[in-house]
Design brief:
homotetramer; alpha/beta; Alpha-Beta Plaits; Rossmann fold; 2 domains; eight-stranded mixed sheet; 14 strands; 29% strand; globular
Chain lengths: 284, 284, 284, 284
């Protein structure tokens, strides 16, 4: 028996769980973990299921084909995943290394079931980290004038690396709408504030000016509207009047990397669905 | 259609979800929320399901009878519940009122779907709270000599009140094994430490002596082994060298009531199963 | 020896601590607790000191007079306080009772060294709580048309009660600039969001719409700019896609009351100074 | 003007702050930050002071000598520190790298004002991390038979490196009383439980068996009594019935490194005093 994951979203109606569970049982499979949620406002049904099936007929395209009658009947959006195959994940980074290192370390500790085929940066600063983890490092500097060409080069590298997830680990460039339209896979970003507070530049400076007593970090999907994409995870940490901007930056570092790595873990363990600008994050 | 909850535990085997979901569909019902967990060590299956069924045949005894063939076939322990019927819950308390008030307030705010038919105390101290909430208050003082008789009186009051849950809201008497054997329903206690640290008397004094930097509270089912019952919820709060025992008591108060009310909410929304000295607490 | 507290703010310069500590020693006093902070940007000095002095000459006006040469020499703003005298604190509230009850309960538990001479509300809803705690309750209903007159009546009640602190415990009326200009003492409000996120009305609805993964509460001084006053304390709590607006309200309740009571405790134990739109909150 | 720190502990008596602050003022210095605490039970006085003095006469031995009359008069234990001189800190580690990496990364980010002259391990596993950070790595394997000799070799390396702090970053060997008696500087350890819960071996297994709903980590000074030394910092993280031992280990990793790095930061910024088996940790 081999493990597979199924993600489903569709209009809610009676019998969905029975139908899906019956389909698994009919193939000689068994469900190990099933979590479902219905959004009461929109009457929309979301399901994540970890199940085992006999290895013959367990290929993702076979499963997808054989499940397709249900897709048609129930207007489902479905995705079969193989949890034993690591996600190919590119990391984009500028000069700050803490999120990058946390992701690479989590990968080595097997907390993240991913392969990182490439680290791309607009600076040389973090090259030694890529070297240490023996990951190809691509330096693609950018200026306001060269941004379109640089984004084209980034896209080429991503396609060459055949990634299905891009993580912006404190990549300090705003990606263009054109880039996002062409990238073809989810892009997860970390913003160093408790969104929607302190959007845009220098959120720790903004937080210091306002005199907040907690700072935050937010991992979200990048969309064309800056800092407005669906939120995957957030975390806060206490600060006081004794903390200057430099202290907020220091305390925030630990917060950012935790939130980003946690959000990436949710994504690469196939727990995240998006719906009308929000996320469903199935519990681990 | 009316709402019902089913709780199941049994040995794990293929097809359980499909069988249960199919049974619901076969009755013209629909599953609103299904959460299942399999304990990998013991290969034991746990499920909580919120579902709707047509009102005819929705009585709990009817459902139980009609589900019984599955119980036999799969060695299940099952329990059907009606989420629209408030749990009858007794509160036992001594002199500290903070947990009692939090439970009563949560009840009034409809955060706890319960009815409190009786508050029992070995002191008169908290009578005014019972009066305010218009709940019968029974004063049953106790001394070491009169303990067996007092426990007998408490049991009589509980039976008269027909409760299906007892909450010890800082009730400072250790219940005898005989009492627990005869009480006939779950008993939830709150211990003012992060169990298993600081079992027994005066945990805040113990915590102060040890110089911990966090204190805790633990809600657990009372069993014959003091402070050893299955843990339902825990929470911690930071303390410092500036905090004396009185400060730990003050900070702990807020912690205790939060943990206890949260654990009671889990229980009365039918989310808690016990298994081999631990709990499964299905997410809300 | 009797206990006194001194709060100082002034431009930073060498020798301030020595001067102040020397002044105490020169009067035969002793410092029990001294905490100071210098804001590095503005080079401003803040100090809180708990000290004992002989009872003769310990009256606040005597201390103030005798300390006045230092005030002149160092451009100080100072305030002597008597920690053994409870603060007279009015509570304004609308229909939600959770913050009110938490404040009253904390007062009874002696966590808050205050006297509450009056509870004022624009509704009758919470009268029974005031009755239970034997506190005068004043019902002053308000409509858009009668707002100026109602605010006048509130001011009269506050003056009659001779309060030195006003707490808005979910008082759902925006106080006018005129009211705030005439009230003559600090006003602490709780806003049910993590400010500056979700200012204004219905923050839980806003939070639900945005799909945040944590909600917050903020206690701050009320100023003429709505939700823009100096922040005293904040706290957050996790939420998920399973939480509807009603769940945010429920989880938020516990958060709001904790934050508000904590902020009030800071204020009434003489730990809060404001400076350029922010607070210094000396640690307990 | 140059920065210095003074740490004082002594029996409490009137005028201590005035005397100390006056001494600074008398040398033409200025206090930037002063925090003091009096333990009410033992009537013991603790003070940390950051101050500036003219560079002439600012050498630590000069300050110590000139302060010595006060030491004699008030039975003080004092220590002058130079915050601009990084602490020389050795790291002992076994196979787990997460605490080591966090410490080294925090050092590079200048969150820890330290120099790490040596990393010592009983395994080769983490050598590449030392190489990356260009820190000498010493491999000193140990067996039960060779433990005394190995500890001797470790002591030699530590003396050669002239360290004033030793951090056990998941060093899985129990240090002998003889080692601790001879080491001559503080030793900070991290234990992967919420002490005093789950002392000794395999705390995550113990936590799993007990069914706790939170796990913890504790940074403490190593003493001859295993897991009984003064606690510097603790932190907890939520777990659920879905978490197996491997999940506790994963969640605990992040917790351990945070607690250890935070405790080390407190120590190397000269904020920690010990007193009767506990710590005073002055706030940052």
């Amino acid at each position: 028996m081999v493990r597979r994951i199924l993600l489903v979203s569709c209009p809610d109606r009676p019998g969905l769980v029975a139908t899906i569970a019956g389909w698994v049982a009919g193939r000689g499979g068994n469900i190990l973990d099933l979590d479902h949620h219905t959004d009461v406002e929109s009457r929309w049904f979301f399901l994540r299921m970890l199940f085992v099936v006999p290895p013959e007929g367990a290929a993702l395209d076979v499963l997808t084909t054989e499940f397709s009658p249900l897709v048609g009947a129930f207007e489902m959006t479905v995705s079969f995943r193989d949890p034993t195959v690591p996600i190919r994940m590119a990391i984009l980074v500028s000069k700050y290394d803490h999120c990058l290192v946390d992701l690479l370390l989590a990968t080595r500790h097997e907390d993240l079931p991913v392969t990182v085929p490439v680290v791309i940066s607009n600076h040389e600063t973090v090259r030694s980290w890529a070297d240490l983890f023996q990951i190809p490092f691509v330096h693609l500097p950018v200026t306001p004038d060269t941004k379109p060409q640089q984004e084209g080069s980034v896209l080429e590298e991503l396609q060459r690396a055949r990634v299905s997830l891009i993580v912006l680990a404190r990549y300090m460039q705003v990606l263009s709408g054109d880039f996002l339209a062409r990238v073809g896979c989810p892009v997860i970003n970390v913003h160093h504030s408790f969104l929607p507070a302190f959007v845009g530049a220098k959120p720790y400076h903004q937080a210091f000016e306002r005199g907040v007593k907690m700072i935050g970090a937010t991992a979200h999907f990048a969309t064309t509207e800056l800092d407005e994409g669906p939120i995957i995870d957030q975390e806060t940490v206490r600060v006081s009047h004794r903390d200057g901007v430099a202290d907020l930056v220091r305390k925030g570092r630990d917060n950012e990397r935790q939130v980003l790595t946690r959000a990436v873990r949710a994504q690469v363990t196939h727990r995240v669905l998006t719906w009308r600008g929000k996320t469903i994050v199935f519990d681990e």
